Amino acid sequence: MPAAVPTLTVVVPVFNEAATVRELLRRVLAAPVDKEVVVVDDGSSDGTREILASIEAPDVRVILHERNRGKGAALRTGFAAARGRVVVVQDADLEYDPAEFPVLLAPILDGRADAVFGSRFLGGPHRVLYARHRLGNAVLTLLSNLATNLNLTDMETCYKAVRRDVLQSLVLREDRFGFEPEVTAKLAWAGARIYEVPISYSGRTYEEGKKIRWTDGVRALWCIWKYGVLGR
User: Fold this and answer.
1) Reported CATH class of domain 8-129+154-170+186-206
2) Per-residue pLDDT for 211 more than 60?
3) Do residues 123 and 200 lie in contact, with contact meaning Cβ atoms separated by under 8 Å?
């Protein structure tokens, strides 16, 4: 008999997250949702691969990139391997709480939405960190909204849950953090029904391993123009 289709595929892009990946996977597996987990190691060199090799869980599949290609590239690999009805992105850095998967899934499973964005700015508890990041996010979200005619509060959120058939119909190209404005624009132009729900957020500092840089913000501006305005 063919294997049952899980409700959710959790795609976890990983790059040098030895300090957090084991705990992250424990939290993902504990989430109260029927799921599979696809971990894509994007060329880690800090012991992450050895930790992943030691994880014995039948619902976890690990795919290895031989070199670091970027978050967007890792996500494309994970999306192609997904079998669940819905796919969600889960970073490995413990900033987002997998216990909130049911909140993300609800508008899709009850037929209201094709995609759900978890917003860090709709009232959920969050760690107080960098004002520059909040301002940058607000500017990028505003520009993305103007390009796509959406009214999102958090375009840059990691937590994006999308029906698998819709997600796999999109042609995605961005290799790094440009994935966020690209997938947002392509969902908008595909006519996807998009919802937002409040989520919690436990952001980390650069000393704790945060990887995004100001150059990724510049690339995001280009992606908003390219995919949002030009629609390419």
Assistant:
1) alpha beta
2) no
3) no
Tokens of 215: 């150059």
Stated pTM of the model? 0.91
CA-to-CA separations, 26 to 49, 94, 99, 202, in angstroms, rounded: 16, 11, 11, 17
Distance CA 42, CA 63 (A): 9
- DSSP conformational letter for 98: G
Taking the C-alpha atoms of residue 91 and residue 80, their distance in angstroms, rounded to an integer, is 17
Tens of pLDDT, residues 38-85: 999 999 999 999 999 999 999 999 999 999 999 999 999 999 999 999
Please tell me the distance from the alpha carbon of residue 21 to that of residue 223, in angstroms, as a whole number: 29
Q: Could you report the per-residue pLDDT of 12-51, keeping only the tens digit for each?
A: 999 999 999 999 999 999 999 999 999 999 999 999 999 9
Largest CA distance in the chain: 53
- Identify the residue whose tokens are 């690339």: 219
Contact, 89 vs 8, CB < 8 A? Answer: no
Q: Which helix (H) or strand (E) holds 79?
A: helix 71-81
Amino acid at residue number 44: S
